[in-house]
Every structure is written in structure tokens, then in C-alpha cells.
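#lab-general

N.A. 3:47 PM
ok so I finally got the sequence cleaned up, no stray characters, all 242 residues accounted for. can someone with queue access submit it? mine expired

B.Y. 3:52 PM
send it over

N.A. 3:53 PM
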Amino acid sequence: MIIDVSNTVGKHRFKPEIKAESLLPQMDAAGVDMAVINCYAESLDNASVEEACRLHPDRFIGLYTVNPWREDAPAELEDALKNRGFRGLYMNPLRHGYILCEHQVFYPLLDVCKKYGVPVWCYGAAEVFSSPVFFGCIAEDYPDVNIIMGRMGLQYDNASAVAVAKSHKNIYLETSSSMDFNAHRAIKTAGTAQVLLGTGTPEAGYYPLEIEKVRNAAKDFPGAEELVLGANAARLFGVKER
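B.Y. 4:20 PM
back already:
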């Protein structure tokens, strides 16, 4: 079973709309069983994510995106998780203008995730706003919340991302936009149970390339391919393996 934990759908002010249905033929061609989807952080088009999950519940898992600066953000997230079928939170500090050390801004959202037992996908590239080094403190403050570090530091700070994940078992590394040697380092150092296939389709990558990258990185580690390509994500999102 292959589960990709990084896909974008929905409307954007300046970019063409990405329809979830356009992903399905690509998923089928690459053998991707399910895709975790989110909207653009700057557009907040959660409605497109919700509709895709409603129409294709066996193919899509929806993450809810909310601007944490809004006072009603925690209540909005709770409603999405409780009543609208969303299964996690998507965070992008770079787009919403907060640094991951500004805990008072987004910790109320993590409180909601803890309450509902859902994971958090957070952009974790080599940026001041979302540097991998910040994730350690968050993981310690929320040991019961699983945190997916999106992009796992990219090429510039992958070593720090991997080191943080090695020290915190509730941090998972997502492979999109990384070189295969970065994925290899993640599997070798953090362990086979803490790395997740992500393609960033269609913004950052595409299915065949990213899947092949993971397979190439996992080949030296017994059982790693099955775990990274899907079993870890299935466990994280409560998906029954087919």
C-alpha cells in the first residue's frame, strides 16, 4: 500500500486551480493508493479538500488549514475535526507569518490536535520561520501529538532535521523535495518507522520520481520500503492496510 502524505489541491489567487480529480489518474498510474491533501495556506480553500474527501473517501485524507493569528482558529479547527471529516492540521509558518518559537500563536491549535488524537503536518524547511531546530521543543511540549516535518529541512538543513527526529519519536520526516541521499540519511539515522513518503504533488514533485527516490533510499534497510511508502502513514492516520 502506498500513501503519499504531501499533496496540494484547491484554488489560489494567482495560480491555476488544482482539482483533486486531476490527481487520481496520476495516482493510479503510479500505484498510489491514498493521498493526504491540503489547500494552499494563503488561500484557505479547505472546501475543496473537504469535497475531495467526501467524494473519494478511500483515496484522500484531508488536512485542515487555518491561520493561527485568528482568535477563532482553535474553534474552527475543532469543528473541522469533529464535524467535517478532516483528519489532521496543516501548518505553514512561512505563509502565515509566525516563527515556530512563537508558541503562543499556534499552541492552541496543537491543544486541539492533542484532544482529537490527530497528526500535524508542518512545513519544516531551512527558513527562519520554520527551521527544523524548532521542532524539538514542540515535540517535547506535545509528546502525544505526532508531528510531520514537511520537506525535512530541504537540502540545506536536512542533517538538523534528521537529528531532531532521531531524538523525538513523535517527529516524522516527509521526503518531498529532498535528494535521495537525504532520504537515505533520514532512514538510516531516524529509523525506518519515522520516515514518510511525500511527493509535494503537483507543487514540489510528482509521484513516479518521488516513489523511485524512496525505493532507492530504502533498499539497504530491511522492511524500510514498505514502511516508508505506506505502512507508517497508515499507522499515523488510522488507515486499514489493504
